[in-house]
# Entry
Amino acid sequence: MLEQYGWNTALQNEWDVLKKENWVNGRIMTQSRDLSKVRMEQGEWLCSLPGSFNYNPSFEFPAVGDWVAVEQLLGEKRGIIRHVLNRQSLFVRNTAGLETKAQVIAANIDYAFLVMSCNDDFNLRRLERYLIATWDSGAQPVIVLTKSDLITDAKRLELELEIDQIAFGVPLYFVSNETGENIEALSHILQPNLTAALLGSSGVGKSTLVNSLLKDEKMKVNTIREDDSKGKHTTTHRELILLPEGGIIVDTPGMREFQLWNEGDSTGLSESFSDIESLISACKFNDCRHDTEPGCAIKQALSDGTLAQDRYNSYLKLQKELAYVERKENEKMMRQEKEKWKAISKTVKKMYKNN
Ligand SMILES: Nc1nc2c(ncn2[C@@H]2O[C@H](COP(=O)(O)OP(=O)(O)OP(=O)(O)O)[C@@H](O)[C@H]2O)c(=O)[nH]1
Ligand SMILES: [Mg+2]
Ligand SMILES: [Zn+2]
# Structure
């Protein structure tokens, strides 16, 4: 029964070692500050989080899609989340603001459906960001362009060509909740027991897409028909939903800004920009700064037009952004380490004084 929700042998093996008396396994369906709805074998339970989870950064904080161990309250259909099982993938962003802070969007997803609408919302540079985050998450990206009913064939071709320049080999679907285009194809990707998360800006039609896949009006959608509703969020929390054909989908509130997260192990940039990375390896000098050096493959590609200036600029910008987050994280760690040693040396000094 939990297999329906994605439970597998790897999780079972981990669970066999981990489980204690009164502990029950389940998957987080929705998550608010300190309450989660968790799907157990026996149904849906409302579970709370002990104070020990309330710390920053919030990586360890249980998220939608997580498999957790719940300590059952004696004889009741509720409990306390005690442990998060190993995550098979994790989609994270950096919360907007001055401070860098990781925010987990969804855990254990097989596919990241990167949703943009064909009209107002479409932005190639944003798509690059989402792709990097997806490669780093461990999930497979699928590009979903919604509202295909609103564009001409010429516009469609143009979008296809643009995307082909930055997302080689990533599956791309033009989708319409109006005409039903490619809804069937998406539900085909979502084989039983596999999980996909819908990721994108507000108003692009994520919840409407869930309804199309459900063949039901379960999700609340924006009823005001503007091009793309900006700044108005209809969906307010992340939710995991079981589809009739067996797949699992996570609806999320639209993200206004999408900044990248990096713990120093990001390979998403190299994966997303393999075109640029292979040019760099063709530069004559290993330490080429692609500035005035002779035999620079980047400069050559920029001048003959095989590499678009916009794409190169984007690469440099994202590289800087990732380096910035990593530096901030290192600083934070060093500060914490320093505080720890300060506390230890204080205790030791006290001990000497007392002797
Ligand atoms: N023309 C057209 N309109 C659509 C399509 N899909 C959704 N819409 C409309 O777009 C608007 C926003 O749809 P939602 O599903 O609420 O968007 P969302 O991405 O879930 O937005 P948030 O929950 O705020 O993140 C609604 O008015 C939908 O009716 C489509 O395929 N074609
Ligand atoms: Mg929504
Ligand atoms: Zn160079």
